[in-house]
Amino acid sequence: MAAGSRSPTNRAGRSAPALRQLVGDAADGIRILYGGSVTGDNAATILACENVDGALVGGASLTAAKFVPIIEAAATL
C-alpha cells in the first residue's frame, strides 16, 4: 500500500485498519506490509503504525548506507 506516497504515515495509518476491516474475520491471519517509500528517516514511524506489520523495502535495500538505518529503526520497536 502507498507506493510513492508523500505522506506515508498518514496513508499507512488510514489504510491498514481499513484493510483489516475489509477482510473481516480473516484479518488476524493476514500481515499487512507498507510498500511505499521507506527510508531510515521514516521507518520507525511507519512500522509503529497500528495494523502495519512490516515494510517491503525497495530501492533503499540496495545499499547498506540506506538499508542499515531501516534495520536499526525496526530493531527499536
UniProtKB/TrEMBL annotation:
The UniProt keyword set, sorted, is: Isomerase
Isomerase among the record's keywords? yes
Leader sequence range is: none
**GO molecular function list:** triose-phosphate isomerase activity
Q: What InterPro entries does the record point to?
A: Aldolase_TIM, TIM_sf, Triosephosphate_isomerase
Pathway per the UniProt entry = Carbohydrate biosynthesis
At the top level, the lineage of the source is: Eukaryota
Q: Does the keyword Isomerase apply?
A: yes
Binding partners and assembly: Homodimer.
Family, according to the entry, reads as follows: Belongs to the triosephosphate isomerase family.
Q: What is this protein called?
A: Triosephosphate isomerase
Which species is the source of this protein?
A: Diploscapter pachys
